[in-house]
Every structure is written in C-alpha cells, then in structure tokens.
Amino acid sequence: MNAGWATAEPTPERLMKLPSWLINRTHAVSYRLVSEGFAAVDSHGYHYRLLAALAEFGPSSQAALGRSTGVDRSDVVAALNELADRGLVKRSPDAADRRRNTVSITAAGRRRLTALDQVLAGVQDKLLSPLSAAERQQLVSLLSRVLEHHAAD
Amino acid sequence: MNAGWATAEPTPERLMKLPSWLINRTHAVSYRLVSEGFAAVDSHGYHYRLLAALAEFGPSSQAALGRSTGVDRSDVVAALNELADRGLVKRSPDAADRRRNTVSITAAGRRRLTALDQVLAGVQDKLLSPLSAAERQQLVSLLSRVLEHHAAD
DNA sequence: AAAGACTTGTTGGCGTCGCCAACGGTCCTA
DNA sequence: TAGGACCGTTGGCGACGCCAACAAGTCTTT
User: Choosing among A2, A13, A21, A71, which should be mutated to test the B contact, i.e. which has the most B CBs within 10 A?
Assistant: First the structure.
C-alpha cells in the first residue's frame, strides 16, 4: 500500500483520525519491513507461518497446517512446494489416512526458522522503536483484545 | 489474509507474540469490515481517499491527489474513471497548465463522501468495540507515534 | 532561443495476498 | 453400501501496491 511515501502534499485529516487508516498504514510499514527481511533470507510470506506451526505442533497434514496458520489449502500446497524445493520440509504419505500428507520440518528447516525468528525480532524493534517497553506491551495488549473479540468472525 | 478464521487448531505461539503479526491480523479484520462496508455503497478502496482529499483540499491535479493520498499516479487514473462514471467527480482541463486535469468533487460526490464517512464511523465502532474510549485513544496515539517515526521511509 | 531536465496523464504490465470452485481420491457413518 | 465429509491439487479471480514507458507540456540553463 505504498509503504514509503513522503511528500509536500498533506494527507486528508479525515484519514489521519481513522483507527482503521492508522492500522492500514502501520500494516504497510510492518509488511514492508517483514518482507524485505524475509527476502534477504530467501523466504517469504507463508513460509514462516508454516515452519512455525511445524516446529511447534510437530508433523501435520496440510489441511491442519492451513487451519492453524490461516493459510488457504491451495496456498499451502504452493508454499510447501517451495519449502520442499529448499529442503526445509518433507512431505510423506500418511499411512493411516491415505488422503493426507504428513509434513515435517527438517533440520535445515529448523535452522531457517531460527534465522527468520531473528529477522523478525529485528523487525519488531525497528517497527516499534519510538515506543518504550511498557508502551509496546500496551500496544500488544490492545491489539490482542481487539483480535480476541473478532476471533469468531 | 483470511480475515475470518476460527478453527480447532491453535495458532503458533511464535506468531501470537509478534506485534507485526497482531498488526497484520488486525489489519485483516479492519480491511474486511471496511471493504464490505464500502461495497454496500458501491465504492471501494481508493474512492474514499480521493473524495476525502478533494473535499478537504478543493480541486486538484491528479498527480497532487495521488501524492496526498498515497495512491500511485496510474491507479489514480483508474479510480477517477470510476468516480467520474458515477458522477461523483468532474475532470476538466487546467487552462494554466495544459498537462494537468483539474479534478473537482460534485454535489453527488459530497453526498457519497458523507455516506462513506458514516460507514467508516460504524466500522471503527465495530472494530474497537472491546476497547473503552480511553483505550481507543491510546491505540490511536501509539499507532500515530509509530507512523510518525516511519514517515520518511 | 534552443537544449535538456522534469512533470503530467495514461497505458500496460507485474507480484503478492487472500479467496473460491472444482476435481479425483479417500474415509467415515448412517 | 451409499452419501456425505474431508484431503491434496489445479486453476482462476480481484484488490492492492508498484514500476516502466510514452507523448505532451512546462521549466531551467545556457
């Protein structure tokens, strides 16, 4: 959404006052930082979500992965193809249920995940640099409450 | 980004703790509410930004509109075409600088803008419903500070 | 006054992200 | 055993942010 954009012309006040606009803009900044950071480690978008789920929950089916990370079934397929090409993930048929693939993270996958964790830690810091630790916690808390309220949408 | 997504499977803790993830998710909820609301009034995305700028700054060139709203020159063209088709905006050649079009908002455009303002007010309320007035102000303040810090990116 | 640099509107294209429909397989249950 | 639900996969769609190129017009420099 045009993340870096500084000009002489001012932005309409109507927009500046809208929480939804502020969230939109903040997301734009955050997204840019994250995807730049990921790109520098040959990863992008869905990769982190999937690796994180695999590391925390162990081998899973593709459908379960999609559900826990909020990624569409069809997009899970594509992302796993990329991860498998890079040797970060292994797909094997599930003997118990032949519809399923059992996806597991490899040693290289865990290393990549660690690298991505570090990238993300740096991003959080850059993103929230104007806020104190207490304020960062405040922001996290407020956003979490908003999200929790919309969890069942 | 899969705005409404509730399942048995939990989300990786790694994600839940990340401010950038919370912002991403909040943006997803917010975006869904906004675009649904806009669609119900036959408007979308860029329309509000452009109408708001025209109402606040008066007739402008397309390039200036793009700069003040963060919309790319080429996308301004398309959005203005739609707005003009709906009679919400008028394009006329600028006599003083023959490269430019002078774009102005029509009476119908102002009415549409008012309708969109109301839609947005409702969205803010739905979005932030779990927060008190003071907390909403807090959230706005925190986000504004983050954005102000990244203004020159 | 001419040349070069820059602006403006416009066209056309690109990649990411979220999403949906459909399919052939497979499983489970009534 | 028949129907319904679930699985992986393919293919497609729209919104959004962006970029390159172009002709027409303007501005700056010499």
Answer: A21
Summarised one tens digit per residue, pLDDT across range A57-103 is 999 999 999 999 999 999 999 999 999 999 999 999 999 999 999 99
Per DSSP, helices labelled H in A40-106 are 46-57, 62-69, 73-85
Give B60-66's long-range contacts (Cβ < 8 A, gap of 24+): B60/B102, B60/B103, B61/B94, B61/B97, B61/B100, B61/B101, B61/B102, B61/B103, B62/B100, B62/B101, B62/B103, B63/B100, B64/A9, B65/B103
- Domains present along chain A, CATH in parentheses: 16-121 (1.10.10.10)
- B45-95 pLDDT, tens digit per residue, is 899 999 999 999 999 999 999 999 999 999 999 999 999 999 999 999 999
CA dist., res. B69 & res. A11, Å (int): 6
Residue B60: nearest nucleotide (C-alpha to C1'): C8
